[in-house]
């Protein structure tokens, strides 16, 4: 049976690198994001590399649109093997200077969209199993007051992944998170390294529920 992955929050950094890593291994790819032109451009770039990919635009902050996109990706691929939540609003601003609307907008993507994705993936994978991948961040373990909303979202997602890893694993659903504490740019070695982490999680080559990037030195 062919494998497939849906990447929510697909962009030119980690999202593109993950798509290339899995696509070159023969997986079908579904890219999702609210910027239609960017998502379609990434799909075209993958197609030029011989990678089968689909564009399913949706806003991660819209729960109904997110669930509809996941259902569409399931139909397009004939059954998703993995779903990767990579969406984030990156705002360099402290908590006290943000407006109420800005806080709500950021958390709708940085946290709530991830929770809805996990819930939808759990219902989709059911008894057949599957993999849920989450892009975490160093701010989730070492917060910075200047990135309040991003750090809060990453910390909360890390908490839920840790809490769900065992009960979901007992049902054949893998959930794992890469805690990325490095700046990631398009086409960079760092992007490729993070994509390799997600590949190892999805293929069972890496155990546990979390991997840090860059790796934490022993001792």
Q: Give the CA-based shape.
A: globular
Q: Reading side by side through the largest sheet, how are the strands ordered?
A: 3-2-1-4-5-6-7
Order of helices and strands: EHEHEHEHEHEHE
Number of beta-strand segments: 7
Largest sheet: 7 strands, parallel
Alpha-beta content class: alpha/beta
Low-confidence sequence ranges: none
Please compute the radius of gyration using only Cα atoms.
Answer: 16 Å
Helix content: 40-55%
Number of helices: 6
What does the model show?
The chain has 219 residues and is of the alpha/beta class. The protein has 6 helices and 7 strands; from the N terminus they run E-H-E-H-E-H-E-H-E-H-E-H-E. Helix 1 crosses helix 6 and helix 3 runs parallel beside helix 4 (100-125). It is globular, with a radius of gyration of 16 Å.
Keywords:
single chain, 219 residues, alpha/beta, seven-stranded parallel β-sheet, 17% strand, globular
Spell out the blueprint of helices and strands.
Layout: E1 4-8, H1 14-23, E2 28-32, H2 36-48, E3 53-55, H3 63-77, E4 82-85, H4 100-125, E5 130-137, H5 148-169, E6 173-180, H6 189-203, E7 210-213
Parallel strand pairs: 1-2, 1-4, 2-3, 4-5, 5-6, 6-7
Q: Could you give a short description of this structure?
A:
The protein is of the alpha/beta class. The chain is built from 6 helices and 7 strands.
């Amino acid at each position: 049976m062919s494998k497939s992955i849906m990447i929510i929050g697909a962009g030119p950094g980690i999202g593109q690198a993950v798509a290339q890593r899995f696509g070159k291994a023969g997986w079908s790819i579904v890219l999702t994001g609210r910027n239609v032109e960017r998502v379609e451009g990434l799909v075209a770039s993958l197609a030029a590399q011989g990678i089968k990919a689909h564009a399913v635009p949706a806003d991660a902050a819209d729960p109904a649109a997110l669930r509809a996109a996941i259902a569409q990706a399931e139909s397009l691929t004939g059954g998703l093997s993995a779903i990767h939540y990579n969406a984030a609003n990156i705002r360099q601003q402290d908590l006290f200077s943000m407006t109420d609307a800005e806080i709500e907008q950021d958390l709708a993507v940085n946290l709530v969209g991830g929770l809805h994705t996990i819930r939808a993936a759990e219902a989709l994978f059911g008894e057949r199993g599957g993999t849920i991948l989450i892009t975490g961040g160093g701010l989730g373990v070492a917060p910075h007051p200047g990135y309040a909303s991003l750090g809060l979202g990453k910390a909360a997602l890390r908490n839920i992944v840790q809490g769900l890893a065992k009960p979901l694993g007992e049902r054949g659903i893998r959930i794992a998170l890469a805690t990325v504490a490095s700046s990631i740019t398009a086409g960079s070695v760092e992007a490729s390294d993070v994509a390799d982490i997600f590949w190892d999680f999805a293929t069972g080559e890496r155990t546990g529920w979390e991997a840090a990037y860059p790796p934490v030195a022993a001792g």
